[in-house]
Write a structure and sequence with these properties.
- The chain has one domain.
- 74% of the residues lie in helices and 0% in strands.
- It has seven helices and no strands.
- The longest helix is centred in the first third of the chain and has 35 residues.
- It is elongated, with a radius of gyration of 19 Å.
């Protein structure tokens, strides 16, 4: 096989993969925008508050936690930064959310992409959730308490 054939095959395969990812990512982005406009995410985060409390995250941190979990770190950061600027999150909460999202971000989006590529979605979801929860619980136990609700980020 010559280099031109390899290049053609790599290019067509890449374009196909990007197209499949776009089919998944674009609808998720549209749903995210609609959910944000209708305050659906805020309503859901009220119900998630009791679930994130054992991880060291308050009800105020449930929304950034939820957004990052389902839609990715970028969207999560878009919610975390304003919440921290408003003084709603402690430094410890921001760190715990970041630790969890480092392991377990974009749960829906990433899982759908990997399922399209042939991975087992159930194993991906359960494995990532379990590892994220264990690491965050451990971090919550070893990090010192931070009761201050002052602005964390020096962003104006």
């Amino acid at each position: 096989m010559d280099i031109v054939e390899v290049f053609k095959e790599a290019t067509s395969g890449s374009i196909y993969s990007v197209f499949q990812m776009a089919i998944i990512v674009i609808p998720i982005m549209i749903i995210m925008q609609i959910a944000e406009e209708l305050d659906i995410l805020a309503i859901v985060s009220k119900f998630l508050g009791p679930m994130v409390t054992p991880l060291g995250v308050s009800k105020e941190g449930a929304l950034p936690f939820l957004v990052g979990l389902f839609f990715g770190i970028t969207y999560g950061a878009g919610v975390i930064i304003p919440a921290s600027k408003d003084g709603k999150l402690t430094k410890k909460e921001i760190l715990l959310i970041t630790i969890f999202l480092s392991v377990c971000h974009a749960l829906v989006e990433d899982t759908m992409i990997f399922v399209v590529l042939g991975a087992n979605g159930i194993i991906l979801v359960l494995g990532r959730l379990a590892i994220g929860i264990v690491i965050t619980l451990f971090a919550n136990k070893i990090l010192p308490e931070d009761k201050s609700y002052t602005k964390v980020l020096p962003i104006d």
